[in-house]
Specification:
about 35% helix, six-stranded mixed β-sheet, globular, alpha+beta, single chain, 8 strands
Length: about 180
């Protein structure tokens, strides 16, 4: 059964490249959610004028991978304890957020956060926003499949490549070779 999930974990180039490598994920689309402006573009979002966060839409086969496992991958491949920041990427467009489709997903998100905090997975409290889904605006074509098309770009080499190595080491059984 095909389902959709929406994750914002900093730069969408990073989160897109991570989820593209997960077995059971059919497609990943970068875009924008959580703001008040209709049809935002990258420049407006980066200027902080729209309220949107860089988000990915993950289309996945629920029979191959669960929503709960996607949540775990999401939380463990970015820092959900920082406000409006991922590494050197600063601004509300880089905030950690999850947009749920229904109450079952919302409950799974809340349960996952409670479990991770009980297990002291992170040194600080998880600050990830939990929001109902809203309009998803697909990013411009130059932002789609960015890492795979720009692996030699310094940001890709110094930020994304290490995240992909971490992904492989933690979630090897869920990653595509």
């Amino acid at each position: 059964m095909t389902k959709q999930a929406y994750f914002a974990g900093g730069c969408f180039w990073c989160t897109e490249s991570i989820f593209q490598r997960i077995r059971g994920v059919i497609k990943v689309i970068p875009g924008y959610m959580g703001g008040q402006t209709k049809n935002p573009n990258y420049t407006a979002v980066c200027n902080g004028n729209t309220g949107h966060t860089e988000t990915i839409k993950v289309i996945y086969d629920h029979d191959a991978i669960s929503y709960g496992k996607l949540l775990e991958i999401f939380f463990l491949t970015h820092d959900p304890t920082t406000l409006n920041r991922q590494g050197n990427d600063l601004g509300s467009q880089y905030r950690s957020a999850i947009f749920y489709n229904n109450s079952e997903e919302k409950n799974q998100i809340e349960d996952c956060i409670i479990r991770m905090e009980k297990e002291n997975i992170f040194k600080n409290s998880i600050l990830t926003e939990i929001n109902s889904d809203g309009p998803f605006y697909e990013a411009e074509i130059e932002h789609q499949d960015y890492y795979n098309q720009n692996t030699e770009q310094p940001y890709c080499q110094f930020v994304i490549s290490p995240k992909l190595k971490k992904l492989k080491s933690i979630f090897n059984q869920y990653t595509i070779s």
